[in-house]
């Protein structure tokens, strides 16, 4: 009868709330059945435990509904630009008491502990690419990656550049290269080598690589960016393990400044100067779309006092030729504008020569340029017109070759529907390029 001696109330309240009795008493016979019947029953939960259990059950029901409707629910926060979906669910899931079993969580995992893409970004990318035929799904495409899904070590300047690349606010290869290098410059300035490490061994794997991975997730890396990053990593590896941090950082900053000055600014000046010499008085030079080197060449030729006309065949999906036409017209250059490739042969026959801008040049001499460039080059070659391509050496790829437009390309995210999609670049064989 030791259980009876505890004095447990028949109402089932927890025995811990009362002090145990030190003296044994014999209960009245009327209370004996009640005490005996209360022994096999489970103890009732406290108010806090009941509240925690209700929250856990509610969170489990939410998770089941959310899992059944995964696609629309996950994509909604990102489309609205929030980037932090699932916060309320997390709070509900973690509200249970310590004695209650936790329900499995279905919210998006954080990127702070690793470098794997988030569930949100992966879901959006899967939905966006679902309409692309499987034989073309190897071709990458730019996408907006929520900043909350980035690696914890990604610098704010790199986050901003990545978002601008994903939305094509920064579009051409040289502009992307320059923005990337300037962002890396800020990364280097704010870097401090952890105690017990050296910059030559710690900076690249733990600091630089997360920046590169984030930019690549936002938009596939162009050839100029790849070449510049290899040169920067080579410079880091040249530092001795005992090189002082300040000296190493100063060397990296000087390398970036020198690179921008020589491989971008000076290269543009020299290319525009040399290409302007190919334009003679009375010429009508045909170009496709808008390219920064071609535009600088026309303006340089005008500064040299030459009188000529420019025939612009525009990319109907980009309409960059409109901006080029306005710039050249404001500079006093005669402009002929065509909004698309219709009547291409007639326009090419009227031109004296053709000047094209390139995105990259491969080891076999083929040219990667905005889609439509190959059509212009082939027609010009067929009517015996000289075709000159302008490209910085930083955009040369001396190791890889390309014989089609599918090996190295991008899908235009703005022209990707259930019925069709558009490749951003095409490949022009070297036999269609005069110089």
UniProtKB/TrEMBL annotation:
<feature type="compositionally biased region" description="Low complexity">
    <location>
        <begin position="17"/>
        <end position="51"/>
    </location>
</feature>
<dbReference type="InterPro" id="IPR000649">
    <property type="entry name" value="IF-2B-related"/>
</dbReference>
<keyword id="KW-0963">Cytoplasm</keyword>
<dbReference type="InterPro" id="IPR037171">
    <property type="entry name" value="NagB/RpiA_transferase-like"/>
</dbReference>
<dbReference type="GO" id="GO:0003743">
    <property type="term" value="F:translation initiation factor activity"/>
</dbReference>
<feature type="compositionally biased region" description="Low complexity">
    <location>
        <begin position="70"/>
        <end position="81"/>
    </location>
</feature>
<dbReference type="GO" id="GO:0005829">
    <property type="term" value="C:cytosol"/>
</dbReference>
<feature type="compositionally biased region" description="Basic and acidic residues">
    <location>
        <begin position="54"/>
        <end position="69"/>
    </location>
</feature>
<feature type="region of interest" description="Disordered">
    <location>
        <begin position="1"/>
        <end position="117"/>
    </location>
</feature>
<protein>
    <recommendedName>
        <fullName>Translation initiation factor eIF2B subunit delta</fullName>
    </recommendedName>
</protein>
<dbReference type="InterPro" id="IPR042529">
    <property type="entry name" value="IF_2B-like_C"/>
</dbReference>
<comment type="subunit">
    <text>Component of the translation initiation factor 2B (eIF2B) complex which is a heterodecamer of two sets of five different subunits: alpha, beta, gamma, delta and epsilon. Subunits alpha, beta and delta comprise a regulatory subcomplex and subunits epsilon and gamma comprise a catalytic subcomplex. Within the complex, the hexameric regulatory complex resides at the center, with the two heterodimeric catalytic subcomplexes bound on opposite sides.</text>
</comment>
<dbReference type="Pfam" id="PF01008">
    <property type="entry name" value="IF-2B"/>
</dbReference>
<keyword id="KW-0396">Initiation factor</keyword>
<keyword id="KW-0648">Protein biosynthesis</keyword>
<comment type="similarity">
    <text>Belongs to the eIF-2B alpha/beta/delta subunits family.</text>
</comment>
<feature type="compositionally biased region" description="Gly residues">
    <location>
        <begin position="82"/>
        <end position="99"/>
    </location>
</feature>
């Amino acid at each position: 009868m030791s259980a009876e001696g505890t004095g447990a109330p028949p109402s089932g309240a927890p025995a811990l709330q009362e002090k145990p009795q030190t003296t044994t008493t014999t209960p009245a016979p009327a209370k004996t059945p009640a005490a005996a019947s209360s022994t096999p029953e489970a103890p009732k939960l406290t108010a806090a435990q009941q509240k925690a259990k209700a929250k856990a059950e509610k969170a489990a029901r939410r998770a089941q509904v959310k899992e059944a409707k995964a696609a629309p629910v996950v994509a909604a926060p990102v489309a609205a630009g929030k980037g932090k979906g699932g916060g309320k669910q997390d709070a509900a899931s973690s509200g249970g008491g310590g004695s209650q079993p936790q329900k499995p969580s279905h919210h998006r995992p954080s990127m702070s502990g690793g470098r794997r893409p988030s569930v949100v970004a992966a879901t959006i990318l899967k939905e966006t690419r679902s309409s692309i035929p499987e034989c073309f799904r190897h071709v990458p495409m730019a996408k907006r990656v929520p900043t909350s899904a980035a690696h914890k070590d990604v610098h704010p300047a790199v986050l901003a550049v990545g978002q601008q690349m994903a939305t094509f606010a920064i579009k051409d290869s040289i502009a992307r290269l320059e923005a990337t290098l300037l962002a890396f410059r800020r990364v280097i300035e704010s870097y401090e080598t952890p105690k017990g490490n050296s910059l030559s061994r710690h900076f690249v794997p733990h600091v630089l690589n997360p920046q590169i991975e984030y930019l690549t997730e936002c938009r596939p890396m162009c050839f100029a960016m790849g070449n510049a990053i290899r040169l920067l990593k080579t410079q880091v590896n040249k530092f001795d393990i005992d090189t002082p941090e300040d000296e190493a950082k100063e060397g990296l900053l000087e390398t970036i400044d020198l690179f921008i000055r020589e491989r971008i600014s000076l290269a543009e000046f020299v290319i525009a100067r040399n290409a302007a010499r190919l334009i003679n008085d009375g010429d009508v030079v045909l170009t496709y779309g808008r390219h920064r080197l071609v535009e600088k060449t026309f303006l340089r030729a005008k500064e040299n006092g030459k009188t000529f006309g420019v025939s612009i065949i525009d990319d109907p999906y980009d309409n960059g030729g409109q901006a080029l036409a306005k710039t050249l017209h404001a500079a006093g250059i005669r402009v002929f504008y065509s909004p698309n490739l219709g009547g291409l042969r007639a326009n090419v026959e009227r031109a004296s020569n053709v000047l094209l801008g390139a995105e990259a040049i491969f080891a076999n001499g083929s040219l990667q340029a905005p889609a439509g460039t190959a059509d212009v080059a082939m027609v010009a070659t067929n009517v015996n017109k000289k075709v000159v391509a302008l490209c910085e050496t930083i955009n040369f790829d001396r190791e890889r070759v390309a014989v089609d437009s599918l090996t190295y390309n991008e899908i235009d995210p703005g022209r990707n529907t259930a019925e069709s999609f558009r490749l951003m670049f095409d490949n022009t064989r070297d036999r269609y390029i005069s110089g």
